[in-house]
Amino acid sequence: MAIFNHRAVWQACVLALIGIVLISVGIEFDAAEAIGDWIRRHEAHEVDEVMFALDIVGILSIIYGALRIFDLKQERKRREQAERRADWMAVHDSLTGLHNRHSLEEKLNQMGKRHGGRFAMLIIDLDGFKRINDLVGHQAGDAVLQAVADRLREHVAADSVFRLGGDEFVVFVDRIAAAPQLARTLLQALNRPVIFRDTSLDVGASIGMASCPDNAADARECLRCADAAMYVAKSTGRGSLRAFDNSMREQMLLRDRDERDLRAAIRAGRIKPYYQPIIDLSDNRICGFEALARWEREDGVLVSPGDFIPLAEETGLILDLTESLLATACRDAMTWPSDILLSFNISPIQLQDQLLGMRILRILSTAGLPPSRLEIEITETALIQDVRTAAAILSDLRTAGISIALDDFGTGYSSLAHLSNLSFDKIKIDRSFVSSFQDQERQEKIVKAIVGLGIGLDVPTTAEGIETANQLASLTGMGCTYGQGYLFGRAMPAAEAARMLSTPRGQEASA
Ligand code: C2E
Ligand code: CA
Ligand code: CA
Q1: Same fold, 101-244 and 266-501
Q2: What is the CATH architecture of 266-501?
Q3: In angstroms, what is the C-alpha Rg of the chain?
Q4: Distance CA 137, CA 204 (A)
């Protein structure tokens, strides 16, 4: 019995046994009478009172011992409960109660050791979840995830459904033939709105489906196939279901190859910052450079950031890439005059990284560049995802002396809310307004309004994408502070930027 494994119980039993033996021996040899006689003979020395006191102490000790054993049992129960809870937490997601990613990894490892399994996998990604989180708030987002988990549990056994993180779920189906019908049932179930505090929240889901051994040799590959199918489903439109097919395998292999190439390029330092001049419109001089990443391929082709930054973000390589680009950019900026600012773009997902401020400051201090010479450019997308974390990171950066520019202003949503809640040192007016405002009266009014907003808030504005002298004249007339665009110069290698700064005409822009 488990209770006898306990030291205290075991000791009590041994002592009880010794007691029984002593009592039996005592009865056998009339010890009680002998002791009684002895006490009576020594009554003058108060031995009887001492013996009485010992009896009382003995009885109390028994009660004390019993109470301690009871306490120990309670303590043991509590500890076992805590252990069970910790074990549960390790493999479950605390919000939804579903198995978590760690648990999925364990399952995949176990399945990887077995060969010849037949099963299907569904990857479910919610449609419109981010919008609910951003617009209605995190509590609404949590309520949606809990409702989704409940609906999944209605149709799938609890140990076959996993939350991958965010709004992604994985379902294992033992019978491959049953998978398509189950997927359709889940799509229907998840399409019902979720009611949160009397508000009806509209969610839906897209599902990718793959099976083993038809599509993949093992569970891990099957998961990747289902993921590829899910991406295609998502691009098809809300509420789609797609089964993996061989046309997706090509995509998958291409993506794998791209990721390998990108990793190698970062490691080899083949992705470098190029520099586009930023001009002070009051005196037409260069006041800074924006670092724009360029991948110099071995065949001499320059790849633009639009082609590799999204992949770097999806694969998490953006962290390494940013560290290497910023370190190079800071070293380059150290060769410029001390009043020339370095502007550097940060990806939206990096504003979820609580250590971002520390990482940036470490790079600055290694290069010896003062924080006041660095400006971080962020887009509004970065703010919508988790505004609290983003605001905390931005505030850390500003406290350290780094300035913050709001990039691509006017292209995201709720821009004005961000301007009123957060402090920025610069507003960058998106190129789409600047490049077309000469043709469209409305666009010109918008640019005028943004410049006016900047003046009102005492925040300088930079117009991006200035290509013609007409645009420049118009923007200068409106009171725009800085300008950037092909008219002044494209993004160029470090050596060229340095040459531009040291031209005989001083820092004047080579317009
Ligand atoms: P962005 O921050 O809005 O950068 C401005 C983009 O406009 C650059 O494109 C620049 O080359 C282009 N541009 C500048 N002047 C003109 C002009 O007069 N006319 C036209 N048509 N285009 C102009 P690029 O270099 O292709 O960069 C695209 C985007 O990639 C950037 O947009 C930025 O969001 C992102 N990016 C670039 N470098 C980095 C980086 O190091 N890290 C991160 N996270 N993102 C980066
Ligand atoms: Ca930028
Ligand atoms: Ca921009």
Answers
A1: no
A2: Alpha-Beta Barrel (3.20)
A3: 36
A4: 18
Could you tell me the residue ranges of all domains in the chain? 2-91, 101-244, 266-501
Q: Are 311 and 259 in contact (CB under 8 A)?
A: yes
Ligand 1, residues 290, 308, 345: which to mutate, most atoms within 8 A of Cβ?
Answer: 345
pLDDT in tens, the chain (511 residues): 666 667 777 887 898 899 899 999 999 988 888 888 888 888 777 888 888 899 899 899 989 988 988 998 999 999 999 999 888 888 998 899 999 988 998 988 888 766 568 999 999 999 988 888 877 888 899 999 999 999 999 999 999 999 987 899 999 999 999 999 999 999 999 999 999 998 899 999 999 999 999 999 889 899 999 999 999 999 888 899 999 999 999 888 888 899 999 999 999 999 999 999 999 999 999 999 999 999 999 888 999 999 999 999 888 899 999 999 999 999 999 999 999 999 999 998 898 788 899 999 999 999 999 999 999 999 887 777 667 788 899 999 999 999 999 999 888 665 677 777 788 999 999 998 888 755 678 888 889 999 999 999 999 999 999 999 999 999 999 999 999 999 999 999 999 999 999 985 544 554 4
Going by alpha carbons, the residue nearest to atom 37 of ligand 1 is 292
List of E strands, 410-480: 426-429, 461-463
Q: Give the closest residue (by CA) to ligand 1 atom 34.
A: 345
* Domain 101-244 coded CATH 3.90.960.10: no
What DSSP designation does 304 have? Answer: P
249: exposed, middle or buried (Cβ count in 10 Å: 0-12, 13-18, 19+): middle
The total number of residues shown for the chain amounts to 511
Q: Is 407 in the pocket of ligand 1 (CB under 6 A)?
A: yes
| DSSP state for residue 366 in the 8-state scheme | H
Indicate whether residue 347 lines ligand 1 (CB < 6 A): yes
Look up the pTM and report it: 0.72
Any ligand 1 atom below 6 A from CB of 309: yes
